[in-house]
Amino acid sequence: MAPKILVILLLVAASPAALAAFDVIQMLADKPRYATFSKLLQQTKVAGEANQLRAATLLVVPDKLVKSLTSLPDDKLGPAVANHVLLSYFDPIKLDEMKTRTAILPTLLSNTDKKLGVLNYSRADDGQMYFGAPGASCVAKLVKVVAARPYSVSIMEVSEPILPAGFMTSTAAAPGRRGKGGKGKIKPSAAGLEDSKMVVRKPGEGVSAKVSSKDTGSESAAPSPKPY
Q1: How many domains does the chain have?
Q2: Using CA atoms, how far apart are residues 147 and 187, in angstroms rounded to an integer?
């Protein structure tokens, strides 16, 4: 009887549902840089909804840049946080391997609002990756991988909250301007590398993702998004 029970337990543990299970709050627990964003995930119950997904990508903002989110009224806070959860697994390598340089990616908010529940993704000529919400400029830079479990869940830092035009407040980044943050190349953090076993490619082998041109000091324009 014991061997049969052991086999059943192993089969359950190896099932797709078990392998896909994750807890975004637990993954952020040892990362105080995102403590406020983690609290917002719990406060709005977005964390629980994200944990029910088979695959997800969470775009987080460090505490020093989260004010435009925390200043939102309750009726806008939940949708805004939900729009930082993509419904598929992405990392810089997967984004770089897309056949097109632009895409429209559905988010958790699409469960209740199809129009606002998407993010625009663009990859500029220099490789820098950007996200933007409907009606707003594509200016939130992909900074780095915070943590990842390949093909199940990834957590990546962006340079500013990604808010639809109607959600903008005086504390939000001015539309059309690229926010600060994320200098140099996008790279997985030490924790992200250990967790995700991602391969860091050499320049010219895939994800270069430079934030700006060192020669001119200017940034490449991000192309207009297309449906993914």
Answers
A1: 1
A2: 11
